[in-house]
Amino acid sequence: MLAVTNCAQLVTLAGPARPRVGPEMRALSIVEDGAMIIRDGRIARVGKREEVEPHIEPEAQLVDAGGRVVLPGFIDAHTHLVFAGTRADEFELRLAGIAYHEIAARGGGIRATVRRTRAATEDELFALARRRSEWFLRNGTTTLEVKSGYGLTAEDELKILRVIRRLNETTPLRFIPTFLGAHTVPDEYDARRADYLDLLINEMLPRIAQDGLAQFCDAFCEEGAFSVEESRRVLSAAKRLGLGLRLHADQFSDGGGAQLAAELGAATADHLEYTGDRGIKALRAANVQPVLLPASAYVLGAKYPVARRMIEEGLAVVLATDFNPGTSPTPSIPMVISLAATQMKISLAEAITATTINAAYSLGLGARVGSLEAGKDADFVIYDCGDYRELGYFFGIELAKEVYIGGRLVFSRPES
Ligand SMILES: N=CN[C@@H](CCC(=O)O)C(=O)O
Ligand SMILES: [Zn+2]
């Protein structure tokens, strides 16, 4: 038995067993002066200290939170963790005024990372991704969705997905794999897009489904990437094979991506910077969760999605990092919370909901993680602050003091 006591705020997110919408996103079910008992990696009891303490057995291992804040581990529902190289060179070009699309048209962008990722061995990619996964842990993230999409041949996509499986087997974090073969058409298929779509649908997807290497399939639905019709073909094939769906939609233009996600019954539509009223209504009607990625809008100096509108329309909003080498090189959910608050006027409580319980539901994990309730996995973080709002108020610093996954201490910051 593990017992966590002396929590100034135990931010439980207890509530209905479904994604939170509207005013529910502001209800964090905070227990002041709280405590929690953990048995066999699962939460057994949560409540006020005086209610919980009598149930602590004498041999229990005690964790004194020292009057700090305790939250569920963050769930990052959109990352591109596995790639080789960086794109610091392109970052500098963009700062000098050259647009993301222009750099891509010159052979940079996603394709530059594809070249480097193809050249890397599986072991090299694993070492890079494992090191980065520690950055996430230090920022309080315990579960990550990870997309492939920088391989774009059957062998290279499988290589990336195997790296994700290995991360699951060898690190304490939980990884949910997503196949993003429809990220861009690779160089060698430039003049024959249809052949690349055939490869995706007839070769890659069946192999990935057969090997159980992905839980979701994603596509980049955008001018210059994949059209609505092409994305529909890929995602419909994935759905027939039993994969869940996610979609990069409306990042640079309102191209009908949100409506496509709704039509296909996707779990999420991600980005949505340019989604308008019709798209929002379609997402609402089909219960698709929007995954908003303010760090990529920040890095690109681009438009932010209309997050307040989405919350007011009753969408179960999720916030994620979009960690990737081109548009969002940050592993930090606290940074995303800060951006969501300052740039999109999402309240701090809404942002916590969007990065915990709502994110968990978007990955099909709502019954297991995302809140501190009896029966759930004991994935929680002790932060070096006394009020959860400080997680969005301070920015650019790491406040996580101890991170636990399944009741096991997996990160501890040395005393400073
Ligand atoms: N939009 C497409 N994919 C990534 C960017 C990938 C890259 O630039 O390498 C995104 O989510 O922003
Ligand atoms: Zn992305």
From TrEMBL:
4-imidazolone-5-propanoate binds at residues 87, 150, 183, 251, 327. Coiled coil: none annotated. Its EC number is 3.5.2.7. It is found in: Cytoplasm. N-formimidoyl-L-glutamate binds at residues 150, 324, 326. Zn(2+) binds at residues 78, 80, 248, 322. Keywords: Cytoplasm, Histidine metabolism, Hydrolase, Iron, Metal-binding, Zinc. GO terms for cellular component: cytoplasm. Binds 1 zinc or iron ion per subunit. Its cofactor is Zn(2+); Fe(3+). Residues 69-409 form the Amidohydrolase-related domain. Fe(3+) binds at residues 78, 80, 248, 322. It catalyses: 4-imidazolone-5-propanoate + H2O = N-formimidoyl-L-glutamate. Its main location: cytoplasm. GO terms for molecular function: imidazolonepropionase activity; iron ion binding; zinc ion binding. It is an enzyme of class 3 (hydrolase). SUPFAM superfamilies: Composite domain of metallo-dependent hydrolases, Metallo-dependent hydrolases. Catalyzes the hydrolytic cleavage of the carbon-nitrogen bond in imidazolone-5-propanoate to yield N-formimidoyl-L-glutamate. It is the third step in the universal histidine degradation pathway. Belongs to the metallo-dependent hydrolases superfamily. HutI family. This is Imidazolonepropionase.
